[in-house]
Structures are given as structure tokens and as C-alpha cells.
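Schema walk-through. Below, the input block comes first and the output block second. Nothing else is stored per chain. Lengths vary across the set, and this one has 292 residues.
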Amino acid sequence: MWLVHWLPLPILGRLGEFLGLVLYRYLKRRRHICLTNLALCLPHLNEQERIVIARRHFQVYVRSVLERGILWWSSERRLRKLIHVEHAIPMSAITQGPSILMCPHFVSLDVAGVAVMLESSLCSIYTPQRNRAFDQALRKGRSRFRPVKLFSRAEGVKPIIRAMKENLPFFMLPDMDFGAKDAEFVSFFGIPAATLTALPRIAAATKAQVIPVIASIRPNYDGWNVKFDQPWPDYPGEDLVVATRQMNAYIETEVLQHTAEYFWTHRRFKTRPEGQASVYGKTKGFNVDTQY
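--- output ---
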């Protein structure tokens, strides 16, 4: 990854997309998960249309892995040239009080993290990677511009709340299936999905503003867009389930705009309501950590 980060982005991007097509062909279980998710969430598309999206997803996913080399080792000047930021709210307003940066699992989510760190420190939840060398590179790459406070999921929310009181934005990725604990079955594209209620709970406890952050790939290998959207007014309200559904509805809207870039290879529906069978059949899952 260090070697390829020297390549121009158009060459690196094409290399990643080629490898993505190779992996689409040979990673049958992951392909099955991807196509199952697409069939559940986008039933209005025919099978061939979903296959096209799945192939493209593998391309942009593998491309995003290689592009992390750029994020971890390229100069600040190069990153500022490649990362195009759209601020509906200035960073100074984000760091003046408790803020949660709600970043769904699009393949370029690491770009969103770098966009924040070019301007501000942050805090987040982190799961150590199994490969020590990769873990070390990842942690150094994600904290090379400013200090980052990373907490394990086992520590709970108290360290996060303390860091937020220091006006560190909480970079949060709340849209994965972590099981039934601290989750509610909330509709995601019409399918009951075990969804963490942590976003509204932490927002209520800290009176934080919730700002969606969406990272996406620019056309023609021109870098990435990072959109800091308007804070959600009057969030979370009184009903945590309603607030969690609001989060999922927002993510659905963004997925429809950047469909292939959403993390379809995650078993989003692995936890089922009582009495319901697995939607993935006998396919084994993957424990892929993408938390920032």
C-alpha cells in the first residue's frame, strides 16, 4: 500500500477496479451476501441490474482499500487537492460544542475521517485489526495530522461522552449489524434490521448536534467528495425508535444516490427477529471492521 500510494490516482483507481472484478469472480460467499442485500433492498431492479451494481461495488470497494495508501502516506497538499469538501456548516461551528458526525458505511468513509482531521481532532470507536502490521499502519495513518482519541467498543459510551465534553467531534458509524444488544429492529429499505440506538441515545445525553457526513467518489478519478450536511433539527426527540428510523431513512436516500458505493458485502440483516430464518442461507459471514 505504501508503494502504490505514489501512483497517480487514475492508475491506482483502475488497478483497484481490475482487482475488484477478479475478487467478484472468486469470492463467491461475499458475492452472495452482496447480491442478497441488493435483492432485499432494491427489489424493483431486475437481476441483471443488481449484478451490475454488485460488480461495481467490488470495484470501488477494492479501489478504496488501495486508496487508503494515499490517505495514510500522501502529503497534506495532495490530500487537499483530492478531497473536495462541501460544508453546510463550518468546521468552527462543529467544534464549538458537542457534535456527532454520522458517517454511514460508504466505501470512502476513511476519506471523510481525513477530511475532518485536516481541520480538527476527533474521537471514535475502534476495533484492533488482527494483523498487527496493518493495525499499526492504520492507526498511524488515521492520526498523523492531529491527535485522535480511539476507544474500544467494550469501554462503552462514557469515554466518548467525556471526549465530546472537550468539544471533540464524535465520528460515528452506526449502520452495521452488531447484534440485538442495544439495538432495535428498524426498517432499512423495508426490511427489519437490527440497528443500534446509540446515535439518538448519545445525542440526547450530550445534547449534541448530529451532522451527517457522506463521502463519495468523484468521476474521472478526480478524487472524492465529502459532504457535511445540515444538522438535524430537534433530534432525537422523545422516541428513540423513531429517531433511529430517521437515521435509516436518511441513509436510504444517500444510498440511492451512490448505490454501488454502499457497503453491501456486510451482512446487514444477519440478526433476525425471533422466529425468522437467516436471509443469507448457509453462507458464512465475514467479520470486517470498518469503524473509524
